[in-house]
Design a protein that fits this description.
By secondary structure, the chain is an alpha/beta fold. It contains 4 helices and 11 strands; from the N terminus they run αβαββββαββββββα. The strands form 2 sheets. Strands 1, 2, 3, 4, 5, 6, 9, 10 and 11 form a 9-stranded mixed beta sheet that branches. The chain has a two-stranded antiparallel ribbon with strand order 7-8. The longest helix has 25 residues. The protein is elongated and about 60 Å long. It starts with a helix and ends in an 8-residue tail after the last helix.
């Protein structure tokens, strides 16, 4: 009986010692942003802002449940495509919609003047005419796993351009930018990097789209 008691005590002590060697969870979550602004040559080819040299950028729209959240979200599409999860020890430095809005403003400002129509402000006038207003809606922003070994940063951004008029806004164009950027690893850091690259690619595509739109129709 004494021998059995001593053996159990030894096993317990060994188990506790082994647990002490396990890596501990970080005390604070890692925080990610979209990184440095890419050089213009990397962000997009030179684009002439002929039709819309001046734009007003409105408040970005986002899903209500994620509007103020800084969670880094992931989806195990191969297991349950309808469930979103949040990394326990990863956060964005600001809500993703805020980060995307800031990055789009920075990229669009490279070849045109970007004014503000945020906070419900009246769009500014240029030569007596209201400046076209660009509204962005962030519809998807997540790290998606197609298998246990493959994942991508998924971004879906809707852009709507209108010209405010007294009789009602005139729709000048609407476009959805859907991107999937492969991640280099299956962790939060790689997911955040892939999403940052997707945002920059969306900015380049947004610039090209705006450059190809026809100018606003004349007023009646």
């Amino acid at each position: 009986m004494r021998a059995t008691t001593m053996l159990l005590a030894a096993l317990l002590a060994g188990g506790l010692s082994a647990c002490g060697n396990l890596p501990s969870s970080p005390s604070q979550p890692a925080r990610y942003d979209l990184g440095a602004l890419p050089a213009r040559a990397d962000a997009a080819p030179a684009v002439a802002a002929t039709a819309f040299p001046v734009l007003a950028l409105a408040d970005i729209q986002a899903r209500a449940q994620n509007e103020n959240s800084t969670s880094v979200l992931y989806r195990l599409a191969y297991a349950d495509a309808h469930a979103l999860h949040a990394y326990a020890y990863a956060r964005w430095s600001q809500p993703p919609a805020v980060l995307v809005q800031q990055r789009m403003r920075e990229l669009l400002s490279q070849n045109r003047t970007i004014l503000s129509a945020e906070g419900g402000a009246q769009p500014p006038l240029v030569q007596g005419r209201a400046v076209p207003v660009l509204t962005l809606a962030l519809e998807e922003f997540e790290h998606a796993f197609s298998s246990s070994a493959r994942s991508t940063g998924v971004l879906r951004l809707r852009a709507t351009l209108v010209e405010p008029r007294r009789g009602g806004d005139v729709l000048l164009g609407q476009q959805v930018f859907a991107l999937q950027q492969p991640a280099t690893a299956n962790n939060a850091a790689a997911g955040a990097q892939a999403l940052s690259q997707a945002v920059n690619q969306a900015g380049a595509q947004l610039q090209q789209w705006l450059a190809q739109l026809p100018p606003p129709p004349p007023r009646q």
